[in-house]
Amino acid sequence: MPRQLGFYALAALVVLLDQAAKWWAVELLEPRGSIRVVPELLDLVCVRNRGVAFGLFNDGDRPWQAWVLGGFALVAMALILRMVQQLPASASRSLTGFALIFGGAAGNLIDRIRIGEVIDFVYIYYRQWHWPAFNVADSAICVGVGLLLLDMLRPAPAGVEHVSDTISHR
Fold first, then answer.
1. Residue 63 CB: number of other CB atoms within 10 A?
2. What string of DSSP letters covers 75-91?
3. Sheet holding 34-38: strands in order across?
4. Which of 26, 42, 55, 136 would bridge 38 by S-S if both were Cys, CB 3.0 to 4.6 A apart?
């Protein structure tokens, strides 16, 4: 149980940080437009995204879209909870990765339920290259996926199963 307590604590921390940052973005950035943090590299903006990651499917007004994307998030979160229950005690990096992904998915799901879209506010660019705006939840999801990939790519210590082996054999 202490392992899962850590999982839920980290996921809750991601949700709290994400929602606080989005509140700040709406309250302070939306009226101002943007704040240049590092010229030619980083601005803080307030962008409303009805689509999925990186603004895909953001165009058009589809009232059902928030519900469909929210449904996908709920399914993903349920799968993560199931996988977390199957993790061996030695899989702390994967547990952390799943907690970050779960918290990020929950943070964006809260936006979809509350306002029908996700608030993004970090905008990175360099000259002609522009990365779509993102938020704390998106960052947590990416870091979480990175931790899971690290776990899969690193050789497991002697006597310890890989997380992917453990989950696929159950």
1. 8
2. HHHHHHHHHHHH--TT-
3. 34-38, 42-49, 118-126, 129-130
4. 42
Sign of the alpha-carbon dihedral angle for 72, 74, 76, 78: negative
Q: Respond yes or no: is residue 165 known to be catalytic.
A: no
> Which residue, 84, 107, 90, is CA-closest to 7?
84
Catalytic: which of 18, 43, 111, 120?
Answer: 120
Beta-carbon contacts of residue 131 (< 8 Å; ≥ 6 apart): 123, 124, 125
| CB-count exposure of residue 27 (10 Å: 0-12, 13-18, 19+) | exposed
Q: Which residue has the tokens 């339920």?
A: 113
pLDDT, tens digit (0-9, with 9 covering 90-100), for 85-121:
888 877 888 999 999 999 999 999 999 889 888 999 9
Q: How far apart are CA 109 and CA 88, in angstroms?
A: 28
pLDDT digits (tens, 9 = 90+) for 56-80: 555 556 666 667 778 888 999 999 9
User: Mind listing the pLDDT tens digit for each residue in 3-49?
Assistant: 678 899 999 999 999 999 999 999 998 888 889 999 999 999 999 88
